[in-house]
Design brief:
Blueprint: H1 2-28, H2 36-56, H3 61-90, H4 98-125, E1 128-136, E2 145-150, H5 162-175, E3 179-183, H6 192-196, H7 199-203, E4 212-215, H8 226-234, E5 238-240, E6 244-249, E7 252-256, H9 268-271, E8 280-284, H10 291-296, E9 301-304, H11 315-322, E10 328-332, E11 335-339, E12 357-365
Parallel strand pairs: 1-12, 2-3, 3-4, 4-5, 7-8, 8-9, 9-11
Antiparallel strand pairs: 2-12, 6-7, 10-11
Helix pairs in contact: 1-2, 1-3, 2-3, 3-4
């Protein structure tokens, strides 16, 4: 079944690449020589295969970068070209010369492509802070308040790189949080870029009195042992909770779960067994799932990522159908759910309809001073 699905994927992908290539060639043909056709076809085949070649030759930074930007071009052209062809077809109902329509449709498509690439790159590499205020009817710290900074889906690699990590650290430290939470997808299927670029040394500069806690996501993996990944991340000053619960203070317990895709992860009831229900209970759950179970187990705050809010519109329409809360804030009884669109990106290094973000959650407890 997997082989059939793989062949079907390659066939559909090849047809779409052919459509993109044919569209480009039909526009360029009047302006270039026939000899250019060979160069064009070879370049298109290389680009189309680049992201797969990057998986085969894992040490090639250049292939990884080319493959990522090809995916950005591919995603945008899949949306732009049908619109351009529809507009060209509609102009047949007018008296505008066809060659002129074809010419300007090509230039407008290129302009839109460049604009969307620039806009998408800005959204990906220029994080914003989104703030949520919640109340938990339990006793908290002496001040009665807690500020929690949260970031997910950093996908640290050679594009979401050391400089992007520094943006994360600068933004978090500017917020001066009491606690920092990273609910998964810290790396992007490979620890080599994280280790070689010294990203861990950057993250170690995060300042938070109650510490930094993380869980693992579906992309926090590589060909080695999970324990090696966890050890590397913990060198960065964070505590990785891998189906674990830890008492941070005498009023707060934090639980971090294995990813939902892991068939061996423990049930939440098992993880919270013995936890004092009078304490505030925070849960790091990479994928925003099982809210009803979390509510039943007395979880007060669940932080998640994974969805990227679709990353490239209209992907958000799909994530809205798949998840009860695909982005933002949702409350179910005592449970507060906060889902981030993510700080990094997966695949194409662009965001359209979403934006790189750091989340700040201002928590007030029952013992908070009244206004």
């Amino acid at each position: 079944m997997e082989i059939v699905a793989g062949i079907a994927f390659i066939a559909v992908y090849a047809l779409i690449v052919f459509y993109i290539g044919w569209s480009g060639w039909s526009w360029m043909k009047p302006k270039v020589s026939r000899r250019f056709r060979i160069v064009y076809v070879v370049a298109l085949i290389f680009l189309a295969a680049s992201f797969m070649l990057a998986r085969v030759f894992e040490g090639s930074i250049l292939l990884g970068v080319i493959g990522s930007y090809w995916l950005a071009l591919f995603s945008l052209l899949v949306m732009l070209l049908p619109v351009a062809h529809l507009l060209v077809w509609l102009t047949r109902l007018t008296r505008i010369p066809r060659h002129r329509v074809h010419k300007w449709a090509g230039w407008l498509t290129l302009t839109a492509l460049a604009a969307l690439l620039g806009f998408g790159s800005f959204n990906a590499f220029s994080p914003v802070v989104r703030t949520y205020d919640i109340r938990i009817d339990k006793q908290g710290p002496a001040s009665g308040t807690l500020s929690v900074a949260m970031a997910s889906d950093m996908h640290f690699n050679y594009l979401s790189n050391k400089r992007h990590a520094q943006r994360l650290v600068d933004e978090i430290n500017r917020l001066k949080p009491d606690l920092v939470l990273f609910p998964g997808d810290i790396v992007d299927d490979d620890i080599v870029p994280y280790r070689n670029q010294g990203i861990g040394e950057v993250l170690a500069r995060i300042q938070a009195p109650y510490g930094v806690y993380a869980s693992l996501g579906n992309h926090d993996r590589f060909r080695g042992e999970t324990e090696e990944l966890i050890a590397l991340l913990e060198e960065s000053g964070m505590r990785v909770l891998y189906d674990e619960a830890v008492e941070v203070n005498d009023w707060l317990t934090i639980v971090g779960r294995k990813d939902y895709s892991d068939g061996e992860r423990a049930g939440l009831a098992q993880l919270t067994e013995g936890v004092d229900r009078e304490d505030a209970l925070f849960l790091l759950e990479h994928q925003p799932v099982e809210f009803d179970i979390a509510s039943e187990q007395g979880v007060d705050l669940i932080v998640s990522g994974h969805t990227h809010r679709g990353q490239i519109a209209p992907g958000h329409l799909i994530t809205q159908m798949l998840f009860e809360n695909d982005w933002g804030y949702l409350q179910k009884e005592q449970l507060h759910s906060v889902v981030s669109s993510g700080f990094g990106f997966w695949g194409p290094p662009i965001r359209i309809g979403s934006r790189s973000e750091v989340v700040l959650i201002n928590v007030s407890f029952a013992n908070a001073p009244s206004n």
